[in-house]
Amino acid sequence: MNLRQLEIFYAVMKCGTISGAAKQLHVSQPNVTRVLAHTEQQQGFALFERVKGRLIPTREAHLLLPEAEKIYQQLGQFRNLTNKIKAGEKHLTIGAPPILSATLLAPVIAQICKNSDYTIEVSTGNQDELCDALLKHQLDLAICFGNDAPNALVQKTLVTAEMTVILPHNHEAPETVSLNELLSNQSGLIALDNRDPLGLQLHQAIHTLAPDYHPQVTVRNYSAAAELVAQGLGSAVVDPWTATQYQHRVNSARLDPAIDISVSLLYAEHYPMSIAAKWFVGQLEQGL
Q1: Backbone phi, psi, residue 140, to 5°
Q2: Which SUPFAM superfamilies does the protein's record reference (predicted)?
Q3: How many whole angstroms separate alpha carbon 220 and alpha carbon 216?
């Protein structure tokens, strides 16, 4: 299996569809289908079963996946290195959730690019996606919510804050709202997915007060929660940056008891930050 075949096999395994793999790799669907068929013919066994229009990985494909991931990780590291060399070590790849990319990173990146010849790539995603990209050397560093770093990643707290209550404009906006009030409110609370760092903190706080509480709507994206509040569906508890971004469309209040949150810098322990990355972090810290 050559690198191109490996790349397509890995993309199909991760995306689950030919169309998803083609979109990820920026190639046509027939191209993916053709390479996949040639790979199966060359290997002498099927990698996917076609069941009712869906691709189901075979046992053989699952056996190959761990080794494919190792090679793909090495390939990502190699690509990252060539990008850095090409840009004269003044190229940075940075990841962050959309809200932190728009609020914390954007002003710093704008200032750097106006006053230097650095080139910067920004990728957005949830914490799991960003941590995975760091381990595969697809990112130099990431800015995430929470202060827990997975194994092999180094964590440094950049800023601490409190989660903020947001309410529809047609609701009175008191200075402080208790979590009990939010849970007993007829309009309900739009919850955050507990796979998310802030969602997990909120879930734990809710469970302490009301173990049997089940929200009608749960989202993983903070902006999606704010958008639903703006539409009048209910209230939500989000990070203060999202609350500020939606300040003209929702009311906000402090939460009682407060839920403290943090924003952290993450990078791979076995892939220390470059001089350029350290300099960027210094610029970011000055701007906070």
Answers
A1: -80, -40
A2: Periplasmic binding protein-like II, Winged helix' DNA-binding domain
A3: 14
Confidence (pTM): 0.68
Q: For residue 23, give Cα distances in angstroms to 11, 19, 68, 136.
A: 10, 6, 20, 20
HSE of 212, CA atoms in CB hemisphere, 13 A: 1
Residue of 84, 81, 75, 82 whose CA lies nearest to 8: 75
In three-state secondary structure terms, 1 is: coil
Which residue in 242, 268, 281 sits closest to 103, CA to CA? Answer: 242
Scan for tokens 């200075």, then name that residue: 175
Closest CA to 1 of 31, 41, 49, 55: 41
If you write DSSP's letter for every residue of 49-79 in order, what string do you get? EEETTEEEE-HHHHHHHHHHHHHHHHHHHHH
Count of Cβ atoms closer than 10 Å to residue 222 Cβ: 27
What kind of architecture, by CATH, is found in domain 164-258? 3-Layer(aba) Sandwich (3.40)
Cα–Cα dist 149/262, whole Å: 12
Please give the Cα distance from 250 to 252 (Å, whole number). Answer: 7
Residues carrying CATH 1.10.10.10, the chain: 3-85
Element (H, E) at 154: strand 153-162
Closest by CA to 214, choosing from 191, 182, 185, is 191
Average pLDDT, the chain: 89
Residue 13 tokens read as 């395994």
The domain defined by 3-85 folds into Arc Repressor Mutant, subunit A (1.10.10)
